[in-house]
Design goal:
The chain has 190 residues and is α+β, with helices and mostly antiparallel strands. It has six helices and five strands; from the N terminus they run αββαβββαααα.
Length: 190
């Protein structure tokens, strides 16, 4: 994963900002189309490719957005799956609502995967997101927390948890930057 993390860090340094080119529900955000146009050339320049596809979650049977960030030369990849709630929105029929949900989740999955913010903080507003999206802010992982996380990750490793599972457990509680993630992976796997 070293190649992917290194290229992602370069991408993040090169990305200058995301324009908030749309507004709705009392906040401004960057449309998915604009976000893709901005990030794709910088990703490609750094040897990365981002793929998003729609599938069905086997457990919930809901549509799901699968987001994959891959390092082109090494084949290293990070994946995430985000189930899309089937919630009828306003005057839209269910299919239109699901389509809007897919676009919404694609934008947030893409931004989350790349570590970028495509919109304003809406915590102070009425959250237009479906109930399954949490607006609770997670703290940044500090150096003080790092030792505890490392011990916990080593315990999870002994329980036969793989790296993706360990990453998911950390991400549930903390915002972690790429350098911390690389350091943690190196300490766990050499």
């Amino acid at each position: 994963m070293k190649n992917l993390y290194k290229s992602l860090a370069k991408f993040q340094k090169e990305l200058k900002g995301i324009p908030k080119d749309s507004s709705g529900y009392g906040y401004k955000y960057c449309k998915l189309e604009t976000l893709i146009k901005i990030v794709t050339p910088i990703l490609n320049k750094n040897g990365l490719v981002l793929i998003q596809s729609i599938d069905t979650d086997e457990q919930s049977r809901l549509p799901s957005v699968k987001t994959t960030l891959a390092h082109i030369d090494s084949g290293e990849a990070i994946e995430s799956w985000t189930p899309v709630s089937e919630v009828k929105l306003g005057s839209m029929n269910l299919y239109q609502s699901v389509g809007a949900g897919i676009t919404y989740y694609r934008r947030y999955a893409l931004a989350g995967m790349l570590g970028i913010a495509p919109d304003e903080d809406i915590d102070a507003n009425d959250d237009p997101a479906p109930a399954s999206v949490s607006s609770t802010k997670k703290p940044m992982m500090s150096n003080a927390n790092y030792k505890n996380i490392l011990m916990s990750a080593k315990a999870k490793q002994k329980e036969k948890k793989n790296w993706k599972q360990i990453q998911a457990l950390i991400s549930e509680n903390f915002v972690i930057d790429i350098e911390q993630l690389q350091k943690l992976e190196k300490e766990l796997y050499g």
